[in-house]
């Protein structure tokens, strides 16, 4: 029991340390979580580099690597080099931020309050338990409080930057509203009635009657457990007509089914809170576009946030550009060349790697393919697209200014708004909707389905007699059993189902069913040595949704596609006028050569001939993706630590170091 408590407390501290790490880098393009016990201000361990005099240790970097499954698997080759570039560049960014908030005044009482809250929430109020938990993580109360101080300092600095942002101007508000009108609509509503009962079988029977044309209001008045006095109306009546209701007026499963009926109609039987509900939508009322005045408060909040994002981005850009980096361990020295230049801005290769390796889809790919197979795919198919997106983003503020547009936000946010500006006026014709529908009818097919019970008889005549005599009264299972059959509930079936005999399933969806009660009976079907009859309910024949039902969906899909194409095309043309320079090909070629040069070489025996199949061995502590001896600082031997009696090698470099391209803008 004591051991279990220790494990739980260890997990709790793990969680609080990780949470601290995540919060500290909020507002930065820092996409992965440090590993358990990795502390921001830790100065102990093997120095890897210094950023503005602040030491970053090998242990810190490795803790971050090991905390990310994708990065942990990338140790060699091109992707190993990419992972090292990403890790080192982001540790540089983080160290620069920590240094920038050192002078922020943080009250001791606030630190105490935060630490106490964490201890209470993790059941570590006992001092001995708290100390023990931190020690197991390689930390102490003093170190944890330093980390908490940095966390609070960053929050205060962020708040200061946000507070200094000027209020949005009328021009900025209108510019955003004009490009995003579709986001500001009144809520959609429906006019309708419902039947609510406690028995599914009863609900199925009432639904069948409604589908057959029975008056829904009368059915509700006679049977519903709710609102029967107003014919099941979802809202009070005005001159005999139900008022419209919002989605929030209905339970979630009921609302989802009812609001999907944009052309009106009946839902199926919906189970909700132990009841069975049927809704008839008499009218669907789409949301209406709001005026600027109606949307102004919401627009102001969005634009204000965008301007705050721009302020944080500008601050972190300045820290990155001004960072002075000293590489101590040559194994962690990186080549971070300028991959593209546009509008006077240099884009470092690390930004390409960051967007790629922090993408969940790429992580999935790396889980399926070995890194050496994934690398050429990513180089050819993924990195070029990322570089183009980055060029668009870096150019966006310049383009917006040239066009006289009062756009706000981070680079990426302005690029999105420019794309929206370029897609204004894009429409979809009825002919385009019809053509898409005709070419893609398979997308709109409703597969056949039914609920099936099977009664098996040994004698064909016995089965035929039961089929002829049973009129749907009473329970099918009881009636078939009394007639000598054995009943199996097959549940939901479709034409390709595997949970019933194929011959019986074929009969379910063929002609020749005999209507009885709430369902129908199949003809007698021979199944092996026996004879079966299927009792079919909730039969849905295969059908294709009509154009009237899916037309709005098709139009919306086509419009989004055309707008994306038009917007990206417009932005690409605008960026082209700025004469951007794309260095990706040269950067990848230089990287491939560097990585190949760092690969272990075959050892040569004393006789002079290479030993067959004997790989070379890297120097102790060397990282195969580190760039090899050519990257080592003068006087070093390419190892992660200095030899005995030798001072550690150090080399001062800008935060981004060019390779076959101009230095990145830092």
Automatic annotation (TrEMBL):
Compositional bias (Low complexity): 604-636, 644-666
Keyword Transmembrane helix part of the UniProt annotation: yes
UniProt catalytic activity: [protein]-peptidylproline (omega=180) = [protein]-peptidylproline (omega=0)
Protein name, entry field: peptidylprolyl isomerase
Enzyme class at the top of the EC tree: isomerase
Location of the PpiC domain: 187-283
PROSITE patterns per record: PPIC_PPIASE_2
PANTHER family assigned to the protein according to its UniProt record, in alphabetical order: FOLDASE PROTEIN PRSA, PEPTIDYLPROLYL ISOMERASE
GO molecular function, one term: peptidyl-prolyl cis-trans isomerase activity
Recorded superkingdom: Bacteria
Gene source species: Deinococcus reticulitermitis
UniProt keyword terms in alphabetical order: Isomerase, Membrane, Rotamase, Signal, Transmembrane, Transmembrane helix
Pfam families: Rotamase_2, SurA_N_3
Enzyme nomenclature, EC number: 5.2.1.8
InterPro entries tied to this protein: PPIase_dom_sf (IPR046357), PPIase_PpiC (IPR000297), PrsA_foldase (IPR050245), Trigger_fact/SurA_dom_sf (IPR027304)
Region (Disordered): 592-666
Chain segments annotated as transmembrane: 12-32
């Amino acid at each position: 029991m004591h051991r279990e408590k220790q494990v739980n407390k260890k997990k709790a501290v793990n969680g609080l340390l990780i949470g601290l790490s995540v919060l500290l880098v909020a507002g930065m393009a820092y996409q992965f979580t440090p590993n358990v016990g990795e502390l921001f201000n830790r100065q102990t361990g093997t120095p890897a580099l210094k950023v503005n005099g602040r030491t970053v240790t090998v242990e810190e970097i490795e803790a971050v690597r090991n905390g990310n499954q994708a990065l942990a698997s990338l140790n060699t080759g091109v992707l190993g080099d990419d992972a090292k570039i990403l890790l080192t560049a982001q540790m540089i960014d983080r160290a620069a931020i920590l240094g920038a908030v050192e002078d922020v005044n943080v009250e001791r009482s606030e630190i105490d309050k935060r630490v106490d809250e964490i201890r209470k929430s993790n059941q570590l109020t006992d001092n001995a338990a708290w100390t023990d938990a931190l020690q197991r993580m390689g930390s102490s109360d003093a170190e944890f409080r330093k980390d908490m101080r940095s966390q609070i300092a960053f929050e205060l600095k962020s708040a200061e930057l946000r507070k200094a942002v000027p209020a949005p101007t009328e021009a900025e508000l209108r510019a955003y509203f004009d490009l995003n009108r579709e986001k500001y609509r009144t809520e959609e509503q429906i006019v309708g009635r419902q039947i609510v009962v406690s028995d599914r079988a009863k609900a199925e029977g009432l639904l069948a009657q409604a589908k057959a044309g029975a008056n829904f209001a009368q059915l509700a008045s006679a049977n519903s457990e709710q609102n029967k006095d107003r014919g099941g109306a979802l809202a009070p009546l005005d001159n005999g007509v139900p008022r419209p209701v919002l989605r929030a007026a209905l339970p979630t499963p009921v609302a989802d089914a009812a609001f999907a009926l944009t052309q009106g109609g009946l839902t199926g039987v919906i189970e909700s809170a132990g009841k069975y509900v049927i809704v008839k939508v008499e009218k669907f009322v789409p949301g209406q576009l709001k005026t600027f005045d109606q949307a102004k408060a919401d627009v102001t909040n969005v634009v204000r946030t965008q301007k705050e994002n721009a302020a944080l981005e500008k601050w972190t850009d300045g820290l990155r550009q001004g960072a002075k980096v000293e590489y101590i361990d040559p194994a962690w020295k990186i080549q971070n060349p300028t991959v593209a230049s546009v509008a006077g801005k240099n884009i470092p290769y690390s930004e390409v790697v960051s967007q790629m390796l922090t993408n969940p889809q790429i992580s999935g790919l790396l889980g399926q393919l070995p890194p050496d197979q994934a690398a050429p795919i990513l180089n050819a198919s993924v990195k070029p697209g990322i570089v183009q997106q980055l060029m668009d983003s870096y150019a966006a503020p310049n383009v917006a200014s040239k066009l006289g547009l009062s756009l706000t936000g981070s680079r990426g946010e302005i690029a999105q708004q420019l794309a929206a500006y370029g897609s204004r006026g894009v429409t979809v014709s009825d002919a385009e909707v019809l053509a898409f529908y005709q070419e893609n009818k398979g997308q709109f097919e409703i597969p056949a389905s039914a609920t099936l019970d099977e009664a098996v008889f040994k004698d064909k005549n016995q089965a035929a007699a039961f089929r002829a005599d049973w009129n749907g009264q009473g329970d099918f299972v009881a009636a078939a059993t009394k007639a000598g059959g054995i009943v199996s509930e097959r549940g939901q079936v479709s034409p390709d189902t595997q949970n019933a005999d194929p011959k019986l399933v074929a009969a379910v969806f063929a002609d020749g069913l005999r209507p009885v009660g709430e369902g129908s009976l199949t003809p007698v079907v021979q199944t092996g040595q026996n004879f079966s009859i299927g009792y079919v309910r909730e039969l849905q024949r295969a059908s294709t949704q009509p154009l009237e039902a899916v037309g709005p969906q098709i139009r919306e899909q086509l419009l989004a596609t055309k707008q994306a194409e038009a917007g990206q095309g417009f932005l690409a043309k605008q960026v082209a006028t700025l004469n951007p320079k794309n260095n990706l090909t040269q950067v990848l070629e230089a990287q491939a050569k560097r990585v190949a040069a760092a690969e272990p070489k075959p050892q040569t025996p004393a006789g002079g001939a290479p030993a067959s199949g004997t790989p070379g061995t890297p120097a102790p502590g060397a990282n195969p993706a580190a760039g090899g001896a050519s990257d080592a600082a003068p006087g070093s031997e390419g190892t992660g630590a200095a030899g005995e009696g030798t001072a550690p090698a150090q080399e001062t470099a800008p935060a981004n170091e060019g390779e076959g391209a101009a230095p990145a803008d830092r």
